[in-house]
Design goal:
By secondary structure, this protein is an alpha/beta fold. The chain has 13 helices and 15 strands. The strands form three sheets. Strands 1-9-8-5-4-2-3-14 form an eight-stranded mixed β-sheet, sandwiched between helices. The chain has a four-stranded antiparallel β-sheet with strand order 10-12-15-13. A three-stranded antiparallel β-sheet has the order 7-6-11, with no helix packed on it. Helix 1 runs antiparallel to helix 8 and helix 5 packs parallel to helix 6. The structure holds pyridoxal-5'-phosphate. Pyridoxal-5'-phosphate (PLP) binds next to helix 3. Belongs to the DegT/DnrJ/EryC1 family.
Length: 390
């Protein structure tokens, strides 16, 4: 894809600093708390736990590390299966194979683009019959939209399977008034550079099980036993967040609510300008839920729009605009060849349809209105041309 030079690049989602980060970083430098752990880490954990309304939070080096620790705490090992949403970033499922366990993928449903309760129900029923229930279910909240948590929690309760809520993309979202990421045994957030708030890299594991989070901190610092000398009876990891980066996180958390408002405004502007165009359908927001709209996502019906998703992506790229296809479902990834998928219904694999027709538009909270209007103008231009020709 050749970009036309001279036009300023518009990114999908770039870091957006508040200006206050320097204050916390300076504090870390002034007190020489450069080493991992320290007052910023403790404060960031407490402030985030308060924000989402959960018992405790453990700051780690990435969202992926948080998922890995959650699976480890649930005693996932070789020979186990773990159910996971298929329509997601690979990081949701990679930790399953770190532990030698087998992922089984669950399809999406149209209402939320997230895990289909219908498919999950079938998968759990079959697993129970085969006397091989999964050790955990990893539920992803795609692009900020919560999954149908009532249905999913109720199904998992019935079979007594713990939930890990992958809320890497949905920090700041709510479902029936409750913070996204607080519905499972464990919740996971990411502060990677492209997420709604960032520490440049980092993650958080949250839970109401305080003992489990103590154990998470232990495992994340090389599983060091109580002793003057370095004593180890278990295998651990080096997974804690640095005190400098936690300082960035504290300042970012202060503006999280603003960032959600900004991303929702971006979604609303796209919606206002583009939703009337035939063949365009925006990602829905489930009634009773409130999405942070991390990324504005939509599908293009090629028949109606007269143009394919990929043609539209190419036109945007020519204008130096970074848009992306929706995640490629994990059951289609070569890495996971041979794994099972539970489809939404027999002749309907929703995640594949979303992958074929879906795209994400630039949604960064620091994008200007002018930049967004440039994207909108490009899309209108391309789409109207093709519709006229039809
Ligand atoms: C970003 C992301 C992760 C991983 O987070 P990192 O901090 O990058 O390791 C996990 N799951 C989903 C759905 C993500 O989008």
């Amino acid at each position: 894809m050749q970009a036309v030079s001279g036009k300023q690049r518009i990114y999908l989602s770039s870091p957006h600093m508040s200006g206050n980060e320097q204050k916390y970083i300076q504090e870390a430098f002034n007190t020489n708390w450069i080493a991992p752990l320290g007052p910023n880490v403790d404060a960031f954990e407490e402030e985030l736990a308060d924000y989402v309304g959960i018992g405790d939070a453990a700051a780690v080096s990435s969202g992926t590390a948080a998922i890995h620790l959650a699976l480890k705490l649930l005693d996932v090992h070789e020979g186990d299966t773990v159910f996971c949403s298929s329509l997601t970033f690979v990081a949701s499922a990679n930790p399953v194979i770190y532990l030698g366990a087998e992922p089984v993928f669950i399809d999406s449903e149209a209402e939320t683009w997230n895990m289909s309760p219908q498919a999950l129900g079938r998968a759990l029923e079959e697993a129970a019959q085969a006397r091989k229930l999964p050790k955990a279910v990893i539920v992803v909240n795609l692009y900020g939209q919560s999954a149908q948590m009532d249905e999913i929690v109720s199904l998992c309760d019935t079979y007594r399977v713990p939930i890990i809520e992958d809320a890497a993309e949905s920090l700041g979202s709510t479902y029936k008034g409750q913070a996204s990421g607080t519905f499972g045994k464990f919740g996971v957030y990411s502060f990677n550079g492209n997420k709604i708030i960032t520490t440049s890299g980092g993650g958080m594991l949250v839970s109401n099980d305080l003992e489990a989070l103590k154990k998470a901190r232990f495992l994340a610092t090389q599983a060091r036993d109580q002793a003057e000398h370095y004593e180890h009876s278990q295998m651990g990891y080096n997974y804690r967040l640095s005190n400098v980066l936690a300082g960035i996180g504290r300042a970012q958390l202060e503006v999280l609510a603003e960032r959600v408002v900004a991303r929702r405004a971006i979604f609303n502007r796209y919606y206002r300008e583009l939703s009337e165009i035939p063949g365009i359908q925006f990602m829905p927001e489930l009634e009773g839920s409130w999405s942070n709209r991390w990324l504005t996502a939509l599908t293009i019906d090629e028949q109606q729009a007269g143009i394919s998703r990929d043609q539209l992506l190419r036109s945007l790229a020519e204008e130096n605009i970074e848009a992306r296809p929706v995640w490629k479902p994990l059951h289609l990834q070569p890495l996971f060849e041979g794994t099972r998928l539970y489809a939404h219904s027999e002749n309907n694999i929703v995640s594949e349809q979303l992958f074929e027709s879906g795209l994400c538009l630039p949604s960064g909270s620091n994008m200007t209105e002018e930049e967004q209007m440039r994207i909108i103008a490009c899309m209108k231009n391309v789409l109207k041309k093709h519709i006229a020709l039809n």
